Amino acid sequence: MQFTQEDRVYMARAIELAKKGRYTTTPNPNVGCVLVKSGEIVGEGFHQKAGQSHAEVNAIAMAGEKAKGATAYVTLEPCSHFGLTPPCAEGLKKAGIIKVISAMVDPNPKVSGKGLAILNEAGVETAHGLLEKEAIDLNPGFLTRMKTGKPFVTCKLASSLDGKTALKNGQSKWITGSKARQDVQNLRAQNCAILTGADTVILDNAKMNVRYEELMKTEFTELNLNSDQLRQPIRIVIDSQNRLTPDLEFFKISSPIIILTTKLDKSSQWPHFVTQMLVPERDGKIDLSVALTKLASHNINNLFLEAGHTLSGKFSELDLVDQYIFYIAPKLMGDCSKGLVNLPEFTNMMQVNELTFLEVTMIGEDIRIIASPKKTN
Amino acid sequence: MQFTQEDRVYMARAIELAKKGRYTTTPNPNVGCVLVKSGEIVGEGFHQKAGQSHAEVNAIAMAGEKAKGATAYVTLEPCSHFGLTPPCAEGLKKAGIIKVISAMVDPNPKVSGKGLAILNEAGVETAHGLLEKEAIDLNPGFLTRMKTGKPFVTCKLASSLDGKTALKNGQSKWITGSKARQDVQNLRAQNCAILTGADTVILDNAKMNVRYEELMKTEFTELNLNSDQLRQPIRIVIDSQNRLTPDLEFFKISSPIIILTTKLDKSSQWPHFVTQMLVPERDGKIDLSVALTKLASHNINNLFLEAGHTLSGKFSELDLVDQYIFYIAPKLMGDCSKGLVNLPEFTNMMQVNELTFLEVTMIGEDIRIIASPKKTN
């Protein structure tokens, strides 16, 4: 399929629109739509929240009568099934759209190709594959869950330049600067859930929530969402030995919590927003791979791992990390300070965990590195 | 003093020229000169090597008769004293230059202001301060030595993302990639001397020299210097306990070596290119501060520190580092691998060594970070 430069511009706009949903659409994907008629954008829309109207519906509503005869640019193949809303393929057809260009087909087996088929049958021209890479990047979590049955796991790590996370006595406030910490808030807000270990919740008395006032210092403000519209990511904590107690700060924030455990704790009085989820054991610990599959079945697309060196190391060792985000502070803390990742002892350099750097940025006085695990073929 | 946009362009050219000397001028500073007459460059030159002609002399030679009535742009105040060559201030005057613009005055007390005075007395107009910052950056070592009586110390460190330099069993080949290692060769070649510890020379059997064939894969090639013109940096090794022996690889490369020791080793048969330098003790070790002063008095401007975690940590702890260059490889080696810098145990986050990131670049698959110690006022 040959696309024109104009096609590219409109699809790029649809991708920009899709991004506006990144704080709110979970568990749905981010989708944007642009309707163009006679070289003019007549309608635009994006999906904001599950249960609310899809991008195509919003764009058609904006276009009104002008939708008739227009071409639709959609970042994802229009849906063909009745979910919480009617199928968009039908909606586009009814609105009189004559051509639909999708950036990518739907990875969901319930939909893939069917939306295009409905349109074709109705005499609507279709094409796909325009800016596909960019469209894929819109929804790492949704696509990973559809393809692998697991969430997309981002492992966040923060350290000094010499890879240290705390002094020997445990002090760690603060290693990174305020801008980096705001950036973490922003990433938390874009993930469906945050995963941590019992140690972090107990020893650091961490809340692991998104603080609206911090978020308001980030790009989040561009979306003009108020604090009521802010969705708190689900907070997930691994507690194989049932060491958590309801009096911890973590349980003072009234938003959904999942405790992953190998044995239900029936003695504690957990608040109503806390769910215990049973996961089988493996080597005396929670089986992390099974845990991820369970979380995906609860519609968690993007999982943000913020844990200590043991749990982060375990995820890394088991190859369960899809992306790393490192914050490196301009500090040297010395060899007697605490390390970043606990890994088994390697006896050969060929065994170490290899990554690929994808992006390096200055965030305030710190450096942020985005990396992916190197795929071993 | 008001400078024009044209002035800036010519001085920027003089600075570019000065950089061409960066592999060879030691212990002299890098200097460039441009002669301009009626809006045209009539002569250009840079200083290439101590004992050879200065930038101004080269520019005048190129201009010939056209030097008469020209303006000279020089990155450093023209010298006024007889060193290995006659004073340039005199040369400029004799050549009929009518105006001299210097980027900066000379920091050398033997020269500072005197070159300009000679010119002024001869009726040559002078000005200075144009692109001064850029001119200062040409000669960190020379300026530091003139101002503080110590060399400019660059501490090079290379590690995995989690700050590790070797496996528990000592394996470390290779952490960084070939591009980063070529970059180190290029930096070695630009420094007057390389400083390391006896451990590195003994345990790694390191040569610490510049390999021409590796250098030829870097920007060095742009200068069209052949291997005969390559100056090996002086190799300096700290050996307070006289553990070094002449059979090590380090001593197989026939280029100047200085052994810093607290007690001369008179029993070993050192090759002719090895000098033992006596330095007083401090806390049972070489007094590093005194060592630096001694090295500066031997005309070492830029010192490249490539050492293990103990010596690097000591320099950092004693605040003797002017600049850090970190190479970070996309690898995780785990907490049981070996650390980057040995520092005293800190009990409060306020005590850790704070740096400022100046530059971050990708070098092949690795990241290079240039940082400076944060000045505590």
Automatic annotation (TrEMBL), chains A, B:
Tagged with keyword Zinc: yes
UniProtKB keywords: Hydrolase, Metal-binding, Multifunctional enzyme, NADP, Oxidoreductase, Riboflavin biosynthesis, Zinc
Molecular function terms from GO: 5-amino-6-(5-phosphoribosylamino)uracil reductase activity; diaminohydroxyphosphoribosylaminopyrimidine deaminase activity; NADP binding; zinc ion binding
Pathway in which the depicted protein is active: Cofactor biosynthesis; riboflavin biosynthesis; 5-amino-6-(D-ribitylamino)uracil from GTP: step 3/4; Cofactor biosynthesis; riboflavin biosynthesis; 5-amino-6-(D-ribitylamino)uracil from GTP: step 2/4
Free-text comment on the cofactor: Binds 1 zinc ion.
GO biological processes: riboflavin biosynthetic process
Residue positions binding substrate: 172, 188, 211, 306
UniProt xrefs under InterPro entries: APOBEC/CMP_deaminase_Zn-bd, CMP_dCMP_dom, Cytidine_deaminase-like, DHFR-like_dom_sf, Eubact_RibD, RibD_C, RibDG_C, Riboflavin_Biosynth_HTPR
Enzyme Commission designation: 3.5.4.26, 1.1.1.193
Binding site for NADP(+): 158, 174, 200, 204, 240
Domain CMP/dCMP-type deaminase, chain residue ranges per copy: 5-119
Catalytic residues identified in the record: 56 (proton donor)
CDD domains named among the record's database cross-references: Riboflavin_deaminase-reductase
Secretion signal, residue range per the UniProt entry: none
Cofactor list: Zn(2+)
SUPFAM superfamilies registered for this protein in UniProt: Cytidine deaminase-like, Dihydrofolate reductase-like
Reactions this protein catalyses: 5-amino-6-(5-phospho-D-ribitylamino)uracil + NADP(+) = 5-amino-6-(5-phospho-D-ribosylamino)uracil + NADPH + H(+); 2,5-diamino-6-hydroxy-4-(5-phosphoribosylamino)-pyrimidine + H2O + H(+) = 5-amino-6-(5-phospho-D-ribosylamino)uracil + NH4(+)
Keyword check for Zinc: yes
Record-stated family: In the N-terminal section; belongs to the cytidine and deoxycytidylate deaminase family.
Protein task: Converts 2,5-diamino-6-(ribosylamino)-4(3h)-pyrimidinone 5'-phosphate into 5-amino-6-(ribosylamino)-2,4(1h,3h)-pyrimidinedione 5'-phosphate.
NCBIfam families (alphabetical): eubact_ribD, ribD_Cterm
Protein name, entry field: Riboflavin biosynthesis protein RibD
